[in-house]
Write a structure and sequence with these properties.
Elements: H1 2-18, E1 23-27, E2 34-38, E3 47-50, H2 56-69, H3 75-90, H4 100-127, H5 139-152, H6 156-175, H7 184-191, H8 193-197, H9 210-217, H10 224-234, H11 240-244, E4 251-252, E5 257-260, E6 269-272, H12 275-287, H13 304-319, H14 328-342, H15 346-351, H16 361-365, H17 371-387
Antiparallel strand pairs: 1-2, 2-3, 4-5, 5-6
Helix pairs in contact: 1-2, 3-4, 10-12
């Protein structure tokens, strides 16, 4: 098959191109697949080459390799090259446990971006007969693309995400050219996409009340890892990626802080570690069947969707609210609102923004800054335990719930 691509197919395509052919497609006129050299707008093929294979995947790969050798600018080929390039970059993190969670996150992101381009950009190119990726740099084409997204994509946020992904793809393609293709019209067209798509009204993300926060703290479930995650979000102000990246060596119960390595912006920072979190993490150690070494992760791996769904189920059962915004980030906002209501100004530290105008570098790089936050949560935890922890059923078999009374 490689010989076909390198020798016969190249000669076949050059001869067809001399007759006016400008694109290649796959057909199956009989038992085997074949390549057809055609001219856009023409009803008949110019030339055909049998691939002597009945496997569609092999035929598609053959066409792709041929177009790559020809330095094709077909949108589907260029998008495929871009996706392979991004995946190879993500795979640089593979094999090192230090970057294992980062690798999983990047792979998920790149697959999402690839899906967006295949689901939106390629159908647009086919509908508008864009066979040269350079055509996408024309202002009028960008305008049509934005209108196309406005008509076909549900949700302004999703349309903006597709635009952002498309812009990153075109910037990559531009960087591969000998001379830049980007002009001012292209930049201005993309800069004004918000106006064309419409603005989204700013809405305040929901958070729970102080009493609901106490109800969550007053419930303890048998699933020690899930319980520790909930406490880490609510009390520690940690994001999901930060929680999943914690190692036992990052915990310092004596000093009352946690070192967050996988933080937002890739800037290592410190976070509070009050007694309620210490007890939750100790429960994990007691339930582990193997010894926990300093390099081991605190939490076992699972998908973000599974974790967040469990947290949503927990919140719904405890306080009776549900929805897409009532997950792990809702717990973070709740903890921030609770501590900020009693101690104004501490909420910014509670959320743990590594790079944010509201939080100076001192607030996240100095573990001693969390003594006042630890004191607040220690006092609240002592008050909740004095009132008594109660039983809540999260499943029919009651195997994931325990009752602890003061």
């Amino acid at each position: 098959m490689n010989n076909i691509v390198n020798d016969i197919a190249m000669n076949w395509w050059m001869a067809a191109k001399a007759k006016g052919a400008d694109y290649i497609r796959i057909v199956k006129p009989g038992r085997y697949f074949a390549l057809e050299a055609c001219k856009r707008g023409a009803k008949e093929r110019i030339s055909q080459l049998s691939l002597t294979t009945a496997d569609k995947t092999v035929a598609q790969n053959t066409r792709s390799r041929l177009l790559v050798l020809l330095d094709s600018r077909e949108p589907d080929i260029v998008v495929g090259q871009y996706n392979q390039h991004k995946l190879r970059m993500a795979e640089c993190c593979q094999g090192d446990r230090k970057y294992e969670r980062l690798y999983e996150s990047r792979i998920k992101t790149e697959k999402t971006n690839a899906s967006r381009l295949k689901a939106h950009l390629l159908p647009f190119c086919e509908k508008n007969r864009i066979h040269d990726i350079r055509d996408l740099y024309r202002r009028e084409i960008i305008g049509k693309y934005i209108i196309y997204l406005q008509e076909t994509v549900k949700g302004i946020d999703t349309a903006k995400a597709v635009i952002k992904t498309t812009k990153a793809f075109l910037n990559w393609y531009d960087s591969t050219q000998e001379s830049s293709l980007i002009d001012r019209n292209y930049i201005e067209a993309f800069a004004n996409y918000s106006r064309k798509l419409g603005y989204k009204q700013r809405t305040t993300k929901p958070f729970l009340s102080d009493e609901q926060c106490r109800q969550i703290l007053a419930t303890k479930i048998v699933d020690s890892e899930l319980y520790a995650m909930i406490v880490s979000h609510l009390v520690g102000g940690l994001r999901d990626i930060e929680v999943q990246g914690l190692r036992w060596r990052d915990l310092n119960a004596k000093e009352g802080w946690v070192k967050v390595v996988n933080s937002k912006g890739s800037v290592a920072r410190y976070a509070q570690f009050p007694k309620v979190m210490q007890e939750a993490f100790s429960a994990i150690q007691r339930t582990r069947l193997h010894n926990t070494l300093g390099n081991d992760y605190v939490f076992t791996q699972s998908s973000y969707g599974v974790r967040n769904d469990k947290i949503k189920m927990f919140i719904c059962k405890i306080v009776g609210v549900s929805g897409r915004d009532y997950g792990s980030n809702c717990l973070r906002r709740t903890g921030c609102a609770t501590i900020n209501y009693e101690c104004p100004g501490l909420g910014d530290k509670q959320l743990g923004h590594a790079v944010n105008s509201r939080v100076t570098e001192m607030h996240y790089s100095n573990p001693r800054d969390f003594r006042d936050i630890n004191r607040f949560w220690d006092d609240l935890w002592a008050s909740v335990k004095a009132e008594g922890l109660h039983l809540v059923n999260l499943s029919d078999d009651l195997t994931n719930v325990i009752s602890i009374r003061a």
